[in-house]
Amino acid sequence: MDRERHWKEVEQMILEMKNTSEIMVDLAYSALIFQDPGIAEEVLKLEEHMDELYTKFELKVLEILQKKSEEVEEEEVLGLLRLGVAAENIADAASRMAELVIGGVKAHPVLRYAIEETEETIMKIEVDERSPFAGVTVEDAEFDEKAGISIIAIRRGNKWFINPQANLKIEPGDVLITRGFKESKDVLESFIREKRSSRSS
Questions:
Q1: Which of 88, 93, 100, 175 fits 105 for a cystine, CB–CB 3.0-4.6 Å?
Q2: Domain residue limits, the chain
Q3: What percentage of the chain carries pLDDT values higher than 90?
Q4: Global pTM value
Q5: CATH architecture of 2-109
């Protein structure tokens, strides 16, 4: 039972590292194409989160190795560690891209054209007290219904929620990282304006 619990924790850590590194790459490309330092800053903040995840992952794997009561295949553990290193390397590459944006480096026209041809885009939404999303759950925010947009991450201070659960309540001060079709951006912005206006009246 103890063995199963330990491996379940490792499995969850690997999944979170995978999801985090993927989101970092998406954000980094978006920051580079749109020359958006704000999105680039989110990548660097996620890098700090990724570093913490990787350290916890390594410690957990070492903890499993040290338990003499468990039969652990060395090749199995080595594979896990290499997978963690790969996710960390991907995150580091995304951070370097973000640093280029913050440093003012422009994207090459070929890269810009290639990314602009994709159907999806990444958007960052800062939630304040007047936001239509403040105080509601991820599910009740109705991104999919209103604009075809989904929340892929939420930053709350230094804490990150990657692929947040539907029942997580959005709070003022949260930063939402969303993914959706490019044409959905105007729909989302219109939706936010309408909700803000109705709250003010």
A1: 100
A2: 2-109, 119-200
A3: 39
A4: 0.75
A5: Up-down Bundle (1.20)
